[in-house]
Amino acid sequence: MKSFSEIYEKIKGSDRQRVIAVAAAEDEPVLQAVTKAKELGLCNAVLVGDEEKILSLLSELSLENTFKIIGEKNPAKAARIAANLVREGECDILMKGLVDTKSLLRAVLDKETGLATGNLISHIAAFEVPGYDRMLFVTDAAMNTYPGLKEKVGILTNAVSFVKSLGVETPKVAGICAVEVVNEAMQATVDAAMLSKMNDRGQIKGCIMDGPLALDNALSVEAAEHKGIKSPVAGHADILLMPNIESGNVLYKALTYTTESKSGGVLLGAKAPVVVTSRADSFESKVNSIAMAVLNA
Ligand SMILES: CCCC(=O)SCCNC(=O)CCNC(=O)[C@H](O)C(C)(C)COP(=O)(O)OP(=O)(O)OC[C@H]1O[C@@H](n2cnc3c(N)ncnc32)[C@H](O)[C@@H]1OP(=O)(O)O
């Protein structure tokens, strides 16, 4: 898997059109993205939010309203209504509009109206980075704050299953740390080593996991050789398992702002995929995120 175009190709064979429920849809970039996604034949959408603002924004953007709108001015309530549409099977994907991430995630976790299943829910971001020979997946930049070993197993399981569904038979996972040796003063190195051993012994299946690895060793064969690291993952990582939300989010935003990467992201492990894009994301990235969600719906 090298590019987003392969994801778009896979969607072309899809049996039915998916429907996205947009929470607090009164947001210019999100309206542009769902309109584009519909034009591309990726999906249809139901817009939940401030109806007056939605209609006025569509008109300002010279976009024809071809969507069903459900009026709700309070963004947190709109998030719960949109999540419930997905829970009830009227829609297939939830997408964040002009509502803060925490409110959207709380709507996802709500036991009565949300999308929790008992599985761990985690975020995966995909990057097409110029010069890297494969798609690079980063997890978790958005949902789990300070995951312990058990949560990291859940994050890893979600990521591996998603990346396999894209056609990567045995994803290579790097447990990213500040160094490539176990140091008990850095819990992430201990967690990465335990995950690697769990993978060796078949407790974690479907991938080749190695760690601790520093980012340079994960991405560059030369850097790994220079340090004498012998690892099937070094220089060839498909998935970067980040130690916590700060490192994940910083890497996500660094790739977004300082490289010409194409990107997208989605929440996995819930009843249905959830698109949680950031203000930092481009229009193209929002459409790519919808495509990732459609493929997973
Ligand atoms: C990458 C682009 C987009 C971004 O930049 S996003 C920006 C950064 N992201 C964020 O600010 C969100 C970070 N996460 C959070 O704030 C919190 O973890 C989050 C998701 C709001 C949940 O926190 P709280 O509302 O305090 O909930 P809580 O921890 O008390 O848990 C309530 C119930 O939900 C469950 N839960 C929490 N996280 C879960 C998860 N990942 N998967 C599955 N279930 C989960 C938790 O077990 C609890 O269940 P129960 O009530 O004990 O049965």
Keywords:
binds Butyryl Coenzyme A, 11 strands, 297 residues, alpha/beta, Rossmann fold, five-stranded parallel sheet, six-stranded mixed sheet, elongated, Isopropylmalate Dehydrogenase
Classification by helices and strands: alpha/beta
Question: What does the largest sheet look like?
Answer: 6 strands, mixed
Number of structurally distinct domains: 2
Q: What is the overall number of helices?
A: 11
Q: What is the helix fraction of residues, given as a range?
A: 40-55%
Strands of the widest sheet, in order across it, are 8-7-9-6-5-10
Strand content: 15-25%
CATH architecture of the largest domain: 3-Layer(aba) Sandwich
Total strand segments? 11
Averaged pLDDT:
96
Measure the end-to-end span. 19 Å
Spell out which ligands are present: Butyryl Coenzyme A
Overall morphology: elongated
- From the alpha-carbon coordinates, what is the Rg to the nearest angstrom? 19 Å
CATH fold field value of the largest domain = Rossmann fold
CATH class call of the largest domain: Alpha Beta
Q: Order of helices and strands, N to C?
A: HEHEHEHEHEEHEHEHHEHEEH
Which blocks of ≥5 consecutive residues have pLDDT under 50? none
Domain Phosphate acetyl/butaryl transferase: 6-64, 72-294
Organism: Proteiniclasticum ruminis
Family: Belongs to the phosphate acetyltransferase and butyryltransferase family.
GO molecular function: phosphate butyryltransferase activity
